[in-house]
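Please predict the structure of the following assembly.
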Amino acid sequence: MKQNPLSVVGLAIILMFIGIAIAAPVLAPLPAVCGPDVGIVCDPNDPYIIPGYGYQRDPLPPSPEHPFGTTPGEPARLDIYYGIIWGTRNAFRVGIVVVGSALLIGIALGLLAGFRGGFLDEVIMRIVDIMLAFPALILAIAFVAAFGASLQNLMIAVAAVWWPSYVRLVRGDVLAAREQGYVEAARAIGASDFRIMGRHILPNVIYPIIILSSMDIGAVVLVIAALSFLGLGVAPNYADWGGLVNLTRNYIVGQVGGDSLAYWYTYVYPGLFIFLFVLGWNLLGDAFRDILDPKVRR
Amino acid sequence: MADPVLRVSGLKVNFYTYDGVVKALDGVSLDVAPHETLGLVGETGCGKSVTVNSLVKLIPIPPGRIESGRALLHWPVPCPHCRGKGCGTCGGSGKLDTCEACNGRGTCSACRGHGRFRDGKSCARCAGVGKCYACDATGKRHVDLLALSPRELREVRGSAMSMIFQEAMSALNPVLKIGEQVGESFYYHQREALCRATIARLEKEIERARGAATGAVRIVSLRLYLTLYRWMLNKTESRLLQFLRKVPVVRRYHRWIEKEMEQRSLEALRKVRIPAPEEVLKAYPHELSGGMTQRVVIAIALAGNPKVLVADEPTTALDVTIQSQILRLMQDLKAELGAAIIFITHDLAVIAQIADRVAVMYAGTIAETAPVREIFKRPLHPYTRGLIGAIPRPHQDLVRLSEIPGNVPNLVNPPGGCRFHPRCKFAKAEVCASEKPLLFDVGNGHLVACHMYDQNAPLWTDEDRQPRVEVVAR
């Protein structure tokens, strides 16, 4: 930690985001009253739906009521600040669920393929090869197109294209670990195959996976944001960083014939948070590597 | 010799590789008497490790395959009727030690010991000998290691037969503490005893909690644990309990058995004379020295109270001072535990120090077995003679040590007949190249697989058979 100040930065960024996610109801509460008479559209049962203000759509620049400005929603002006705060929760949920499920599949199949070998290994790895031969983004788009655009389907789609690389990584390490003396020794004192896999091999191959998966949480959020931007993800007005950028698609070029940067706040703020989130996880992944990998330890 | 604890006969193992079939073992036969140390010597690649590893199927299968052979291990089991407490079925000993095939009679159950049936046909079950095929006529309970199911095999590994490996450091898992690794062996093989001890401990704890004022909640939880352990005692392999161990909070119950495991691990480490065992228990393998790791590995191997302890070159990776410490330790432990040891090495000096009996292997066959003094004083097989002759002797003024000409044969295409004949200066083309010599008893417990001593003996002179050590004088 001390030798690598960047890892402290990464940790600080992620802690900040965790703080934001936990304190979201405090940082960005739903308006106390909403309804047509006050000109605020919101869903009191689902705080993830960004409240809309007024009846016009064109973005408003940052102001005391809307610190990051507003972005054009359906049908009203949406508070960007609110969207970013609640979008943090969404980013964590998406990243952890997708990486977590990809990890579960990846570790289980990787252990089986590497340890058992033979026909099972062949089948699993050929499926992995086929999956990896597709461009991941296109495959995810195809999934969503087939099953319908929703956040849930988006997460399933990304997890479905994400696990093969984990299988490969785990299997490679398991192949090396299963030839170790301690595996034979465990077998010699009567350990069963599952016991050897779980107790002796898994702890020895888990570190690269931990490092990769912490970096991947950022990457997954990036992919989801990209898919959301393409309009494949969330419902309109849902607090999602990629979705926020998507809303302002028609305004990115600025005012026609006027200032081309007039609406900068509609995409810079969400983009900045996506950037910081991914950067934070990458730096944290580096930090994990420094801590867990004895070879780069100084 | 007393009835052997382990009798290996005709063990034949092949490895099916891309280069062809490696005929690694060609009918290896070995007897290991109870409480004895059998030294298994031979050069690299002659099949010492393959022999012992294939007994408990630790060779990679495939490419390896055990083609034929039997390995009868004398293995009394706790009496199933009284769970080891002693009853009429087991004669009060608590152990079941009667051959199930012949019911203790020692005769073949198919032909009732006659070797042939009334119609004159020879009995196929016992090959016409009339001995019980399952217990080798001893009437005791034997299991054929090579015919065990995977589950039975796991039971045998570590309890009836355990291993000490050459590279102690790599035999220990780098990410687990020593205590966890030693305890594991108890967990596999003595779960019942562990449960009993834990139950006793819990009962004592409940008594103590009863005296205290704040004990009510504690007693309830301890009672709960007690029920779980009583259940575990009856169903040691319960899936539900294995699952409960993974559930947070509930898994606290497992700490009690872990305490017991730790206690036993501590004793095991003390037994192998590790200084400050409490600290070693909490250490990781890389924090220990080579000699210490080897002691830990020995402690793990002894944890299951093995009948046969296989030590596969346990001292090769150690320096001489540690080597002698480990050897002394093993001798002391052997006297203490009464286990038989198969000691694999290529160091004849170590053999002379530790073994009671020696089996010399050459290219996948047993060349000669004899008591240790006999083998050094009267080596009979030309290969053994060559080996002994190649030992430098300080008091002899030599220019050049004698050697065995040629190289170890490639086992993909081993020489026919006696596998040693191309390098043997006594070889006679008429028998040695065509006929495989079998182990022949020449008396004094001395068996040798060489045509010079069996029914082909007249082909050689007594001069040839004279055991002598070749010396090239200055």
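The longest strand of chain B covers residues 20-32. Chain B has three domains: 6-173+293-359, 191-281, 381-473.
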